[in-house]
Design goal:
By secondary structure, this protein is an alpha/beta fold. It is 22% helix and 25% strand. The longest helix is centred in the middle third of the chain and has 13 residues, at 86-98. It is globular, with a radius of gyration of 16 Å.
């Protein structure tokens, strides 16, 4: 895979007051914006083209990252209307930029040391998800069989926000605002989704407390 999408259109309501005047993907961990950590890691992994969607204060993201030239990568932007298009609608809106080959997506509001260079999409799979243990005893999203198939129950693991997709799964999806979760559950029922568990650093930066926690990591 050479193309990756960073999902950065979220409003960041729970991260106030940090997001009053700043998109949440520009909140800093170790003095570097969260989204820049992803850009640097994806560049190191050999990706050549990044697509970044944005809505709330998206101009600040464009201003900070620019064309990607200073990072050694091409960056394209997929603007969305106020309120954003959520995960499913955001990916479908960006398909003309993503191309016809499998691509990786990563949520902009997670902090992780996941090695994107190790990521691969199995040949028999339409989607591959990276899973983590649910934080603080929360309910998970999916189960995982011993043959690495994603199942809808038991919900033992949380979707990390890192995934790879084959673009053909979006062929019949309409433009609009919607989550990708229903499509994932449908494909999981058809045993077309695989996954693996990641046990390294992973923090969902959804609240000021989680942002402080990320800044305390080494």
């Amino acid at each position: 895979m050479k193309n990756a999408m960073i999902l950065a259109a979220g409003r960041g309501e729970r991260l106030k007051p940090f997001t009053e005047f700043c998109p949440k993907s520009l909140c800093k961990v170790h003095n570097i914006p969260i989204i820049e950590h992803h850009v640097l890691n994806l560049v190191s992994a050999g990706f050549e083209h990044l697509i970044i969607n944005h809505a709330y204060l998206g101009g600040q993201i464009r201003q900070h990252l620019g064309s990607g030239a200073r990072f050694g990568i091409k960056i394209s932007y997929s603007p969305e209307p106020p309120g954003g298009l959520e995960t499913g609608g955001g990916i479908v809106n960006a398909l003309p930029l993503l191309g016809d080959k499998p691509f990786l997506t990563v949520n902009a509001d997670i902090f992780t040391d996941y090695d994107f260079a190790s990521f691969s999409l199995p040949t028999h799979s339409l989607v591959h998800l990276i899973l983590v243990k649910p934080p603080h005893g929360a309910q998970g999203d999916f189960g995982l069989t011993t043959s690495h198939k994603i199942e809808n129950s038991p919900r033992a693991y949380t979707f990390s926000g890192i995934a790879a997709y084959r673009p053909e799964i979006f062929q019949n999806m309409k433009n609009g605002r919607y989550s990708i979760t229903p499509l994932l559950r449908q494909l999981a029922n058809n045993k077309k989704v695989t996954g693996e568990i990641y046990q390294g650093t992973w923090i969902d930066i959804g609240t000021p407390e989680r942002l402080r926690l990320a800044n305390q990591t080494s």
